[in-house]
Amino acid sequence: MPAATPSILATSGGFLAAKRTKLRPGPLLEFALQLAGVSPLPRVCFVGTAGGDQESWNAALHAAFYGREVLVSCLDLFPMPNIADVADHLESQDVIWVGGGSSANLLALWRLHGLDVILRRCWERGVVLGGVSAGSLCWHAGGTTDSFGPVLRLLTDGLAFLPFSNCPHYDAELQRRPLYQQLVADGTLPAGYATDDGVGLLYQGVELVEAVTEIVGKAAYRVERDATGGAVRETRIEPRVLPGAVAADSLG
Question: What residue numbers bound the domain in which 154 lies?
Fold first, then answer.
């Protein structure tokens, strides 16, 4: 059952630490499942291209849903696609969640395998698209990335389903905020949105509907070039606190 409106949940979160398993679905990921509106057995496909399709990570994702009525799959592209008909599989999902890692590698490999076209078709048909970090940036026009090394660099060839720039981990990495603001201020990147760790942006169509958070006290930001030119304007967006959100000091 597709979502009523093409939806993207672009985040800096999604999983939290668990006691019995490595991970548990956090409120952001639970929200993505709610957006799909499917009961009792939603289909969720995790795409780990940016992280190199690690088998251990796939196992952790499956374990995170032990005891839940959720049909979990993982799409791998290394060393070859692990699913015979990738398009058919992705189009049959309710949620597609993209993990973090190398945005540049993800985009190159997706285009090589035609996932740029397949994922647009999924989005247009109402499959909820989401993800964290690289899985947030990829849906936008561009942003900043550590794909090439520890010094952040510009990325301008996102899928551009959303006509904005994007910066995840806005509060977590010292380079993020100043470089992103500089690139928006000088017109290298279009205006866009940034998220602190734990925050997500819900787009329906190509409009930002709301910001949501799984960590109390975090925020999203609208970052745009000032009308006078040569400067940037940052506007804090207070997110809606999702059920089950945690305090920042409980994560340490």
Answer: 7-250
